[in-house]
Design a protein that fits this description.
Elements (H helix, E strand, L loop, with lengths): L3 H11 L6 E3 L1 E2 L2 H9 L5 E3 L1 H7 L10 H14 L4 E4 L8 H10 L4 E4 L2 E2 L5 E2 L2 H18 L4 E6 L12 H15 L3 E4 L5 H10 L5 E3 L7 H6 L4 E3 L3 H15 L3
Parallel strand pairs: 1-11, 2-3, 3-4, 4-5, 5-8, 8-9, 10-11
Antiparallel strand pairs: 6-7
Helix pairs in contact: 2-4, 4-5, 5-6, 6-7
InterPro entries: ICL/PEPM, Pyrv/PenolPyrv_kinase-like_dom, Pyrv_kinase-like_dom_sf
Keywords: Lyase
Pfam family, one: PEP_mutase
């Protein structure tokens, strides 16, 4: 078994702009084993797929403890670094979030700026950076370099005028970088021009969401992306295929 510190170091080193780490988004031990046996070097656990798998709604419809239960099953099944989408933090302190993740063997996290417990409001830019900073300090205190992927929902929530949305996202994510993030996630599907701006102007590797059916690693690599994940789209694609198989038996 690889130590948790080694896994954290490996996950961080895999983030290479222009040679992105592909993190299949998994939700249970079965999907994690499927991806690990396929040769992927690391995985991310998606909140939406996990919530679906236990019959709970996304956007913190499950508890942090329910998420940790599933993550523990995943890390017991595979010996590769695992990152976890912790949504906006489930109302927990940074110390509790980091402690819980380390307890179940996770070495990375995705933290978004939509506060689901407060009506889905978007954290202010500095407020989100302060939360990222709290997570970094908690990880440092615990002695494990948890890889922090700081996400903004400015694009998917279409906050403010479109004319300066890229500039505002860059400014917001730069604050998160200064606070201790390791990668930056302007979630949404963007044009090549926007991706090129994001990857050239942001100081850390950029996480892109990709459609596993239609996307290609090479295209994201050419745009300078450093990390690719699938959100709920891998689970959705498998559901389409499963429905096709099952339809033959109705």
């Amino acid at each position: 078994m690889t130590s948790i510190n080694d896994k954290a170091t490996t996950l961080l080193q895999l983030h290479q702009p222009g040679n992105p780490v592909i993190l299949p988004t998994v939700w249970d031990a079965w999907s994690a084993n499927l991806a690990a046996e396929g040769g992927f070097a690391a995985l991310t656990v998606g909140s939406h797929p996990v919530a679906d798998s236990i019959g709970k709604p996304d956007n913190e419809g499950m508890s942090f403890e329910e998420l940790l239960t599933r993550v523990a099953q995943i890390t017991a099944a595979v010996d590769v670094p695992v990152s976890v989408d912790i949504e906006s933090g489930y109302g927990q302190t940074p110390e509790r979030l980091i402690g819980g993740l380390i307890e179940v063997g996770a070495v990375g996290l995705n933290i978004e700026d939509t506060v689901h417990s407060e009506g889905g409001r978007l954290r202010e830019a500095q407020e989100h950076a302060d939360f990222v900073g709290g997570l970094r300090r908690a990880a440092d205190a615990a002695g494990v370099h948890i890889v922090v992927n700081a996400r903004t929902d400015l694009f998917i929530k279409q906050v403010g005028d479109e004319s300066d949305r890229v500039e505002r996202a860059i400014a917001r994510l730069k604050l998160a970088a200064e606070a201790g993030a390791d990668s930056l996630y302007p979630v949404g599907f963007h044009s090549d021009e926007v991706y090129q701006r994001l990857t050239s102007e942001l100081p850390l590797p950029v996480n892109a969401i990709a459609d596993p059916v239609r996307g290609e690693k090479a295209s994201y690599a050419s745009l300078g992306v450093g990390r690719v994940s699938f959100g709920p789209l891998l689970q959705a694609a498998l559901a389409v295929r499963a429905n096709q198989l099952l339809a033959r038996w109705i």
